[in-house]
Amino acid sequence: MVAADDFLAALGLGLGHNATVVVLGCAAFGLAAGLVGCFVLLRGRALIADVAAHATLPGVAAAFIGATLAGADPRNLWLLMAGGAASAALGTLAVRAATATGRVRDDAAMALVLSAGFGLGVVLMSVVQSRPTGGQAGLAHFILGQAAGMAEAEARALGMLAAGAVAMVLLLFNPLRTLCFDEAFAAATGLPVRLLDLALMALMLLVAVAGLRAVGLILVVALMVIPAVTARLVTDRLGVMAALASLFGAVSGWVGAALSAAAPGLPTGAVVTLVACALFVAALLLSPGRGVLAALLRHARLSWRIARDHFLRGAWEELERQRLGPDGAFAAAAVAEAWGWGPARLALVTCAARAAGLLTAAGEPGFLRLTEEGTALARGVVRRHRVWEIYLTRAGGVRAFAAHRGADLIEHTLPPEVEAEVEAWLAAADPALAREPVPPPVEGSLGHGARA
Amino acid sequence: MSTPASLPVPALSVRHLTVAYRDAPVLWEVSWATPPSGLVAVIGPNGAGKSTLIKACLDLVPRISGEVRIFGQPLAAVRRRVGYLPQRASVDWDFPATALDVVAMGCYPRAGWLRPLGRREREAARAALAEVGLADFAERQIGQLSGGQQQRVFLARALALKADLYFMDEPFAGVDAATEKAIVAVLRRLADSGRTVIVVHHDLATAPHYFDHVLLLNLRAIASGPMRQAFTPENLALAYGGRLSLLDQAVAAAAGAPGAAPRA
């Protein structure tokens, strides 16, 4: 299994020349795939990339057979890759041709070409296997990837691919962004939309073919899609997203290759993909804007604010009912009853409100008192509710009990400018009432818990 | 309208335009010319080919036959003078971009696509956002804007193109009252400064208030001309095929509208 020392050594490029070549080559490939994948994904072409990758197989096998028949060296990697690129290009053209007639939906066309291409490739592979030179040709490695035997020239080519991808994206950043966001607008302004698409597709094909050796044709799409999706979770800026996707892709390639170098039994492609997935899961959980934890936190905060406001208003109304001032002691159970809360919820809310300094214990058990801060907050909450009730009944002609319900629904999400408008309306309509810190409840609105 | 001696060039003229998707024609032999400037509505029922007409004029869909002239010239010669506002629903608003990023897309055709925008162009983009009342939303992610605000971002991007002829595809679709008001104000300003705006519109009640000219379209060009002359119950019935009582109401409302008078 994985030896930790070997893994760290490979990560630090200290596991010998061969392992270093593989790690750097995979990192360069990851960078190119992440960056190109960013735009492929935003252009809605992720599935086409998968089709292209699968469609490389018949080309690779055909190139092998052709070279054998012509007496050339069938193991020449460049020849095999050229064959793969040709059949991948044919595959994408086939998808375009099938959808252009309008008779076949594009997802169906892609599924069709993907499986047909892969099927044809498998058949040709079995032909290769049956030949005397077959078997050992290592063609099977193109399916799942085996970076271990990567030569220095290959790693260098991957580095050039990465540099080329970066250069092209830097040069065409604005046109690509406009095209990916709004194709019709881009075309209307005179951008050569087809040429741009072609450049992007060519880059995507290059990446798909370049990834054959490192991660294999089945998983090459993973390195285009996963780093880009991960980066999208973390940022809302395209520039940052492209940079992060490159980084995530490079890190996945680097770490994955190091892991697989330390444990030669592990196929590189699978490990690289799993590393990319791990980064994705981390981003999904931890991203500040779109992460799961952040969403839970936001939800919890909103729930707390609503429960707090409800409790404070319940307390205020209970104090009014007992004809006590804001500094009087009230029974927590009465507030809970008004809102229909169980003892667990009541305990939770009062506990949190006491921790927030809004409530204190009042001598007798089960009785509470509002602190100064709690009183101020409660006054604001009740005023907002009642002013809204008054507005709904007088200006909106809503019946009192319905107004109470409406105010309940809206008061927590009322934007400040609407609140100011309603206050201004009240100040004009009934100045005396507006001057009261807390207006009395609207006649017939029942207050809380239907205590009528 | 004009003396024969100084015939003004129409902003857009279309002759014998036919467009088909697969086998079914969507536009059939449409011939139409707009005035040299002003606000022009393209009105017709769903599926009448209104959006297709705009797209065909911009070479976004292939034409089967017909000729389009913009300021008397083919599109390629006057591309910089033409602006396009697509339907809001035609793009994915979850795209990683800010409102300012989107408006900046309208600056590149003039400033050059391959280099970052200079200070002047960035200020022009901000000014366009301010013109539609979104100055404070420049850095907002577009997915977090309301539908009306998104529509105004599109409008600001069109303004940043600084075009003389605009094609706008349903800019009033699904927007709030504030946005509708803001858009109308911008359109009015454009018309007052001598620009032409061709708008696909579907609200018969507001059309006579907002626009000076109209094309009633339903596969064919049913009628066109100044609003008061072309926006008649008979023509609307031809375009919409019946439902006369509703149409009468729309025309009656139009007759009382102050904006319905042809503008100087």
Record the SSE blueprint.
The complex is a heterodimer of chains A (452) and B (264).
Chain A: H1 4-11, H2 16-42, H3 46-54, H4 56-70, H5 77-100, H6 106-130, H7 141-144, H8 152-171, H9 173-181, H10 183-188, H11 193-214, H12 220-234, H13 238-262, H14 268-286, H15 292-321, E1 329-331, H16 332-339, H17 343-355, E2 359-361, E3 367-370, H18 372-394, H19 400-410, H20 416-429, H21 431-435
Antiparallel strand pairs in A: 1-3, 2-3
Helix pairs in contact in A: 1-13, 2-8, 2-11, 2-12, 2-13, 3-5, 3-6, 3-11, 3-12, 4-5, 4-6, 5-6, 5-11, 12-13, 12-14, 13-14, 15-16, 15-18, 18-19, 18-20
Chain B: E1 12-21, E2 24-33, E3 38-43, H1 50-57, E4 65-70, E5 82-85, H2 99-104, H3 108-111, H4 119-131, H5 147-160, E6 165-169, H6 177-192, E7 196-201, H7 207-210, E8 213-218, E9 220-226, H8 227-230, H9 233-240, H10 244-255
Parallel strand pairs in B: 3-7, 3-8, 5-6, 6-7
Antiparallel strand pairs in B: 1-2, 1-4, 8-9
Organism (chain B): Elioraea tepida
Family (chain B): Belongs to the ABC transporter superfamily.
Pfam family, one (chain B): ABC_tran
Task: Give your account of this protein's structure.
The complex is a heterodimer of chains A (452) and B (264). With 452 residues, chain A is mainly alpha-helical. Chain A is 73% helix and 2% strand. Chain A has helices at residues 4-11, 16-42, 46-54, 56-70, 77-100, 106-130, 141-144, 152-171, 173-181, 183-188, 193-214, 220-234, 238-262, 268-286, 292-321, 332-339, 343-355, 372-394, 400-410, 416-429, 431-435, and strands spanning 329-331, 359-361, 367-370. In chain A, a hairpin with a 5-residue loop joins strand 2 and strand 3. Chain B is of the alpha/beta class. In chain B, strand 1 and strand 2 (24-33) form a beta hairpin. At the A-B interface, helix 9 and helix 10 of A face loops of B.
